[in-house]
Amino acid sequence: MEQAPRDLERLLQPGPLEPLGHTDAGLEAVLDEKAEGVRDEDGRGDQTMTENFWLKKIEISVSEAEKRTGRNAMNMQETYTAYLIETRSVEHIDGPSVLTDSLWRRYSEFELLRNYLLVNYPHIVVPPLPEKRAEFVWHKLSADNMDPDFVERRRIGLENFLLRVASHPILCRDKIFYLFLTQEGNWKETVNETGFQLKADSRLKALNATFRVKNPDKRFTELKHYSDELQSVIAHLLRVRARVADRLYGVYKVHGNYGRVFSEWSAIEKEMGDGLQSAGHHMDVYASSIDDILEDEEHYADQLKEYLFYAEALRAVCRKHELMQYDLEMAAQDLASKKQQCEELATGTVRTFSLKGMTTKLFGQETPEQREARIKVLEEQISEGEQQLKSKNLEGREFVKNAWTDIERFKEQKNRDLKEALISYAVMQISMCKKGIQVWTNAKECFSKM
To answer: In 3D, which of 56, 104, 57, 106 has the Cα closest to residue 84?
Structure first.
């Protein structure tokens, strides 16, 4: 009895990688070798062991960003940024690495990959992409998406996205993700051939389900509210950080004014000149350090932004559950209506107003043969409806089980990541304050020697 859920979970996972077209045999061999290595005697993969099986054997990095010019689908010239993805196997003890491969991808291709994952794995909290345009920045920082500093931070974010997917126990096994890393040509065509766009739910249908579900799952309703609050809190935190960074920039630059004044003053003083010049030098060094500090701050802000966008990924799972619940309720309602119609035909009584009932009164009763034929058709529809309802119930329960497993995994990841990020941010602020104290301590010593 203990093994059944585990077997079911294994069957629900995507099958072994079956690359389409030509791919690098080295990477495939490494993955197959690792997959075999983590299976137990019964052939089942241990999720805790396979969760990072890619990252234990394969290094994935987005190593470069390059500005390019080309023509879009409308045959208009455009400027865009391409990112170099490098994959290589971890070096073995008994020989060199099996694989070293690289290819270039645009940001839009990362978006296409993520949209594919969202549609094909609706029960998974799919990792978000970094922002396409800079948001929540302090006003001295460029918001241009072609700015070198922004492109560099986005490069890091795209690498983090790939590492998140590669470390996921289910997403990492998807063949489209595999091809994204290994097949440079015709990759878009391969994705579109999967027909994932046809499986995507329309926004109108999702909105309809949100307002018309009669029995929503309390857990998913609470999760939806939590994701809204998480997004609101992080957005507010980022706005506060941007204001603090702006003021901090001003304070540091004022120290540059101290440095200039002390240097000018030293030129007219003989006995005090050396002390004033040394103090001015300390102030100049302190003022110039703000650029590196704020660059580090932006990296911490990007870590918070990732979970700002994760909030939308959580809502996507909740919306999918609402859609499934809505379809289930509509199927149950349709089945109940058909059963009532069948009962009314069998007994000859009409409980509710219907167009068919009015037609019967106006044009006469049906013959027994016609009634029997209609009853037979309804009975077949009822049988199909019962099977469909049973199937939707099983699908819904499976979705809830798998979704909640992934949500729990996400919560552990979130708590760990945000804890580390906030602690690192606090350590950086403490270090920054200590440097300020040291600068003024040095200035005090310079003044004491005058």
So the answer is: 104
Q: Residue 14 in contact with residue 177, Cβ under 8 Å?
A: no
Task: Name the packing angle between helices 148-167 and 175-182 (round to 10°).
Answer: 140
**Distances, alpha carbon 288 to alpha carbons 138, 189, 363, in Å:** 18, 50, 93
Q: In sequence order, which residues have a C-beta less than 8 Å from that of residue 286 and are 6 or more positions away? A: 252, 255, 435, 436, 439
pLDDT digits (tens, 9 = 90+) for 64-80: 888 888 776 666 777 88
- Band the pLDDT of 260: cuts 50, 70, 90: very high
Alpha carbon separation from 146 to 5, 80, 140, 157, 160 (Å, rounded)? 49, 8, 16, 15, 20
Rounded Cα distance between 85 and 357, Å, is: 67
CA distance 235 to 305: 8
Residue 127 banded pLDDT, cuts 50, 70, 90: very high
Name the β-bridge partners of 303: none
CA-CA distance, 85 to 162, in Å (whole number)?
10
CB 406 within 8 A of CB 257: no
Q: Which of 225, 307, 289 is closest to 251 using CA atoms?
A: 289
Does residue 125 have a pLDDT over 90?
Answer: yes
Q: Are 89 and 26 in contact (CB under 8 A)?
A: yes
* Tokens 């890619």 belong to residue: 54
Cβ atoms of residues 396 and 325 within 8 Å? yes
